[in-house]
Specification:
Largest sheet: 2 strands, antiparallel
Strand order of the largest sheet: 1-2
Helix content: over 70%
Structural class: mainly alpha
Number of strands: 2
Shape: globular
Order of helices and strands: HHHEEHHHHHHHHHHHHHHHHHH
Number of domains: 1
Distance between the termini: 38 Å
Number of helices: 21
Length: 474
């Protein structure tokens, strides 16, 4: 019996166990070594090994722990791209956060453990614990630096997170009352309790994805934290929140798709519209990017509207593919945008502070311009193809009117993204910029990948083949 347990249950946790041991090792090393380069290298190597361990798992839809944990290609895909987001941020985090690097990177690895667990969870308790593991870790990361702005941003993030936690716990309890289990099942539950659970869980997880009206914390947190942490919050953890929304509401509420559809359609329209119009009038660069993130969240949840509101199998497949494709593209175009803010040596960076950077470093300006165009959905960037598949799924699902609203919102976003581009190429010799490798390398990498990931559209047959791993029965 012990051998069966070790072989079938413990082995699925090897990536998490490995990262946990490395994180504890870092904390012990911190008593003697404080070189950020060492911890950056250890973190990157550890995350790469964790990716290999994940790829070695048998992703054959096998369930563990009474159906609470399932290893399949769909969860594996999201686990891998969330680690990719961590690898991307880790490349430049050490150069900015040099004090007590062992604490930062150990916490960073613990967050990745929780993200991996969440990617394979089919149980609200598992999801809650993993999600809170990510939240607690990011509260700590947000305060890293100990400046007044860092601590204020972390405090706002923490108190908002506590409220979200309460809604998730209460919603999970109502889900249990309706179904008799915390597992996300497709049985026929009691309607009243399930509708209450739907609203409560939506509010709880909506906070994490910064959906309107639970969005303001994101603007303050992204603006007040250090740039690598802002990049991570706006990319990796946001993709995690989106993935959990897909799993919880499309699997756990499969008998209430009509209610799910109307809820997500209304919130999606409000969120994307609010985010875009707020970004139009914003002069602070990080806050503009934060409002842009809110608008992007509105686009992302259109996937849930398609799956819950259309009976077309083709629309379903294209929508989930769009979710998978959009997620990996989003990591680089949004994460790279936040990391680029480090080029200006100021706490509060205005868009106009980028004046003259196009003359001093055309490579920086062109790279950031590519990211801005991708966020706006301009071809031939990967952001264009992400929105193309998203809007195609809406049209295929006979939700063309929703596609029109999404396209109009994308058109609005072009104005504030183009504003950044035009400002960069204005002449201004008085501004000084930090154009070292710690800024240029992640930005140029993101720009190259934002163009290169366009080639992933040819992987549609391969990626669409794992769409069924979400667990939605059509």
């Amino acid at each position: 019996m012990n051998n069966i347990f070790l072989n079938q249950y413990l082995t699925v946790m090897y990536p998490e166990i490995f990262l946990g041991l490395v994180a504890f090792g870092m904390l012990l090393m911190g008593k003697r070594y404080h070189d950020w380069k060492v911890y950056t290298g250890i973190s990157i190597i550890s995350l790469l090994i964790a990716m290999i361990l994940l790829l070695l798992l048998d992703a054959g839809n096998e369930t563990f722990y009474g159906g609470a944990f399932q290893i399949n290609n769909f969860g594996l895909y999201f686990a891998l791209i969330m680690i990719v987001s961590s690898l991307y941020v880790a490349l430049s985090a050490g150069t900015v956060l040099k004090d007590n690097p062992e604490v930062f990177f150990a916490t960073f690895l613990f967050v990745n453990i929780a993200m991996i667990i969440a990617a394979f969870s089919l149980n609200l308790i598992f999801i809650f614990i993993a999600f809170e593991g990510v939240s607690v870790g990011t509260y700590i990361l947000s305060a890293y630096g100990k400046s007044r702005r860092n601590l204020e941003a972390s405090a706002k993030y923490f108190f908002t997170g506590i409220i979200a936690t309460g809604f998730i716990v209460l919603g999970s309890s109502y889900y249990y009352m309706a179904t008799g289990t915390f597992n996300l099942i497709s049985g026929v539950p009691e309607k009243g309790a399930m509708l209450i659970a739907l609203v409560l869980l939506f509010v709880g997880f909506g906070f994490k994805l910064a959906l309107v009206p639970m969005q303001q914390w994101a603007v303050d947190a992204y603006d007040g934290t250090s740039n690598p942490v802002s990049a991570f919050l706006s990319s990796g953890t946001k993709v995690l929140a989106f993935f959990i929304l897909l799993r919880v509401f499309l699997v756990g509420f499969s008998h209430f798709y009509n209610d799910v559809f109307y809820l997500f359609v209304i919130v999606s329209i409000i969120t994307m519209t609010y985010g875009n119009f707020a970004a139009l009038s914003e002069n602070n660069l990080k806050r503009m990017l934060a409002y842009s993130s809110i608008a992007q969240a509105g686009y992302l949840i259109l996937v849930i509207a398609v799956v819950s509101g259309s009976s077309s199998t083709f629309a379903f497949t294209v929508a989930i593919f769009a979710a998978m494709y959009y997620s990996i593209v989003y990591i680089f175009m949004k994460g790279g945008s936040f990391l680029s803010v480090s080029a200006v040596n100021k706490d509060k960076v205005e868009i106009n502070d980028l004046e003259g950077i196009g003359v001093k470093s055309p490579l920086f300006a062109v790279s950031l311009a590519i990211l801005m165009l991708s966020l706006a959905g301009i071809p031939p960037t990967a952001g264009f193809f992400a929105k193309y598949y998203l809007f195609l799924s809406l049209i295929s699902g006979n939700l063309w009117w929703l596609a029109v609203i999404g396209i109009l919102n994308s058109a609005i976003s072009v104005f504030y993204y183009l504003r950044v581009i035009t400002v960069m190429f204005r002449k201004n010799d008085s501004h000084e910029f930090n154009l070292g490798s710690s800024v240029m390398l992640p930005l140029v990498t993101a720009a190259i990948l934002t163009i290169g990931l366009s080639l992933l559209i040819f992987a549609y047959p391969q990626l669409s083949s794992i769409v069924g791993g979400l667990g939605v029965v059509r």
